[in-house]
Amino acid sequence: MKKWMFFGALFCLGLGGCATHGCDTTTPGSACRTDYLLYQNDMLQAKLLINERREDNYELASALLKRAAKQDTTGEAEFYQAVLLIRQGADEQQVTDRLKDSADRKYPLAIALLAERTAVLDQEKAKVYRSRYDELDVAKSGYPSFAQALIVVNKLISPNK
Fold first, then answer.
1. Ramachandran region, residue 47 (left: φ > 0; alpha: ψ -120 to 50; beta: rest)
2. What are all long-range contacts of 155-160, with beta carbons under 8 Å and residues at least 24 apart?
3. pTM, to two decimals
4. Phi, psi (rounded to 5 degrees) for 54
């Protein structure tokens, strides 16, 4: 696996946050902990499958993301669903809808990708997304910067390995 994929996966795991709906995920053996671990596993597997860039893995990645989305409160699952749709050449509206769902949950990479994708057609809307990114806690902390987020999303959606 290329170094950027490994670091990108770690970066994205760090942004994932906790998708627990307020339950205690620290108690070993609890149902909540089990659900949380399964969610984390589904997200990790889906991201790895997507990063392999093998089309025959996309069906499984899609199923994992669909299952993870049921517990995800961060927008991460919707973001990766959008990445998968881009890779599969899906309808632009489907991609935008997934990205907007993710951005509504304040997932930084979704907001960055929306800003970049809308900049071609609507500079004002792109500025709105950019300002939304700047208001995020991760942006205020300085990591990832908007430029760093764009590097990650462009590598995820680029057609070449």
1. alpha
2. 155/4, 155/5, 155/8, 156/8, 156/50, 156/51, 156/83, 156/109, 157/83, 157/86, 157/87, 157/113
3. 0.82
4. -110, 115
**Token code pair at residue 87:** 């890779």
What is the pLDDT tens value at each position of the chain, 161 positions in all? Answer: 454 444 444 444 444 444 445 676 777 778 888 999 999 999 999 999 999 999 999 999 999 999 999 999 999 999 999 999 999 999 999 999 999 999 999 999 999 999 999 998 999 999 999 999 999 998 888 778 899 999 999 999 987 76
**Domain residue limits, the chain:** 3-12+24-157
| Angle (CA) 123 111 51, round 5° | 120
Domain 3-12+24-157 belongs to what architecture?
Alpha Horseshoe (1.25)
